[in-house]
Specification:
Two copies of one chain form a homodimer.
Chain A (H helix, E strand, L loop, with lengths): L1 E5 L7 E2 L1 E6 L5 E6 L2 E5 L4 E7 L3 H9 L1 E6 L5 H9 L7 H4 L4 E3 L6 E3 L4 E12 L3 E14 L11 H4 L3 E2 L5 E11 L8
Antiparallel strand pairs in A: 2-12, 3-4, 3-7, 5-6, 6-11, 7-10, 8-9, 10-11, 12-13
Chain lengths: 188, 188
């Protein structure tokens, strides 16, 4: 029996992303965002939505660039902190004892200790309401060697990304392998 | 040591969504999409990106509406099939022995047997390149009672959504509870 839950955004799983930016003065900032995802294969683009009130929002418009980092479960504490505090008055990276690295490709920093990052050039801005959607073209993706499997591709069981649950606001991990894409459905 | 992987969209986890539409003649169609996510809280909006070549692309523009369903692991075979075949020449729902239900709120169908659906009115269309991004305002979300926990919210361990891995193209499940959002980082 289907039950109405009202007008809610209930996409499962939602990712846990850390957006890296520079402010006008060149101070690196990071914030956690779960409103986002892949949005185009060619050119390769990802989207993140931020509230206008955030410090990162102005930074992206100023620098026309951002990075999207994917933290591991091991950094859940630091990742959650990046969503709790504004970078307007705090140096979040120093507080979390993590290191900002300047991208050589776009005008934005990323976190050295996180295993996966995409360096993005801003290509679209859409005002949707409370959130503004920023679409970035991925200029390069970088991964720590420790999360790359034998095939040369990222191994999700080594990456251990966090899952955000929109309705209960919890973090979960990734579970077991289920099936191969473009294969499991061949005998329907 | 960070290694360059080239310009790739590597957001983890990516969701596995089933987009429901009607064609001009009123035939229901469904297709699987992993390029998407939540993009605004107020008004509540979700985004899905589809290639222009898909049958669903034209359907969304024609009807200015779509639904976003979240399948459980139990329907991985049917879900994968919906991404393998075009609805131009096939009745995918009949082939998969699943039932289309007409939304009473928007001009689009959803799958009766899937545990979670959002009924969306089209509000933005952005041409990004190979993919077009469709932003839909969620008019209502509906969930099967079987996935609602004691708190009245969706229990992700009952929903059992699929995770898509962009680099290896596999389906995974959801793992263990890790931490509470806006809480785990309080002692940084």
């Amino acid at each position: 029996m289907m039950k109405s839950l009202g007008a809610k955004t209930l996409i499962y799983p939602a990712p846990v992303l850390v957006v890296g930016t520079y402010d006008k003065a060149g101070k690196p900032n990071v914030m956690t965002a779960s409103w986002g995802g892949i949005c185009c294969s060619q050119p390769p683009c990802v989207a993140v939505s931020l509230r206008k009130a955030t410090y990162s929002h102005a930074n992206i418009l100023e620098r026309e660039a951002f990075t999207v980092g994917v933290p591991s479960e091991t950094h859940v504490k630091e990742t959650d902190y990046f969503g709790l505090v504004t970078g307007r008055n705090a140096d979040k990276l120093a507080a979390a004892k993590l290191t900002a690295v300047k991208s050589t490709l776009v005008d934005a920093p990323y976190i050295k200790e996180f295993p996966l990052v995409m360096e993005c050039k801003l290509v679209h801005v859409t005002e949707l309401g409370l959130h503004t959607q920023f679409v970035g073209e991925v200029i390069d993706a970088k991964a720590d060697e420790s999360i790359i499997g034998n095939s040369g591709a990222i191994d999700i069981k080594k990456l251990k990304p966090l899952v955000f649950t929109p309705d209960t606001q919890d973090y979960y991990g990734i579970g077991r392998y289920v099936a191969k894409v473009f294969s499991a459905g061949k005998d329907v």
